[in-house]
Amino acid sequence: MGAQPGDAAEFTDLESAAMTAALGAAREGVRGANPLVGAAILTADGQIVTGHHGGAGTPHAEVDAITTAHDLDIDLTTSTLFVTLEPCAHHGRTGPCTEAIINAAIPSVVFASPDSNPLAAGGGKTLAEAGLTVRSGLHEEDSRALNARWVRSTAEARPFVSAKIAQSLDGAVAAADGTSQWITSAESRAHAHEVRARVDAILVGTGTAVADDPRLNARGPDGISLDDQPRPVVLGTSELPVTSFLALNPNTLQLRTHDVRAALDELYAAGVRHLLVEGGPTVLGAFFSAGVVDEVFCYQAPLLIGPGRSSVDGLDIGTLSEALQLIPDDTETQAVSRLGPDFLLHFTT
Ligand code: AOF
Ligand code: ZN
Fold first, then answer.
1. Residue 60: is its pLDDT beyond 50?
2. Does any ligand 1 atom lie closer than 6 A to the CB of residue 93?
3. Which of 33, 44, 186, 263 has CB atoms 3.0–4.6 Å from 78's, for a disulfide?
């Protein structure tokens, strides 16, 4: 069926632009239980109409694009549909996209990457058997990258866990007197907000919730909409002060368990596929000890602050040979980059 991954030769520049538009639309989707998927319809006269999937239970990207095309009276019988994921062939929360495509009389479909969900996969074959021209592999790597953490999460049936550490050069998150604000630079904090904007939920322990009164939302120059904010999660049994930001946020989820695996099960059941753990040291230690940290963003500030609070607490490691080894990750960006005076280190585990 059509092109092999990476074989861009059989696609025109206009087709490449259409898939790029579909990828752009996919990024407008809502993170969470379903992957990010976008679609673009390219008409015979070069017009592009996009659509995207807005989260579990809402129309799939193909259906969204077809609806818009119908509203605009576009002739679909001479158009090509570009979609970032293989169209689904299953009856899930919505009907099969293969059926919607066939009913719309679209003659030609290009998808970027296959669907890793065995329940939904096989749409390409179904469409080809129905007589449509089906090609795949256009911008496949971009589509895979968009959902790499989601794919790993569904394969392991737990949220993909990113851990954030912001520390001094001597590995501390607070000085001896407890002062801890602004160890890292404004540039680091801006980057941390970009990371927050990409996750489904952000978790801290009750210790951090009480000490810092964090909001656990994504703020930045571009901001993100209120409905699209990650879900704040607090791990632990202590009560939050009633006037704290987290207690006042109706979206906050408090998990009154000390068991990391049980917490992850609850979050997965609640639709969380990508979790950012922001500490403090006890919670970070618990996640590392449970072996469930998948990646680490370490913001390393050029400060020495003396005997304070170590960034990761309670690891049961007594000798060097038991050290937990992280792997520098150069795949998305450089493993080491500069954020103002700080260094951002990116690792997988
Ligand atoms: C598509 N187009 O836009 C998306 C697809 O039960 P549902 O309706 O929520 O289906 C979820 C599954 O469908 C999801 O796990 C993935 O395999 C596929 N997502 N497929 O054709 C889309 N979002
Ligand atoms: Zn679908």
1. yes
2. yes
3. 44
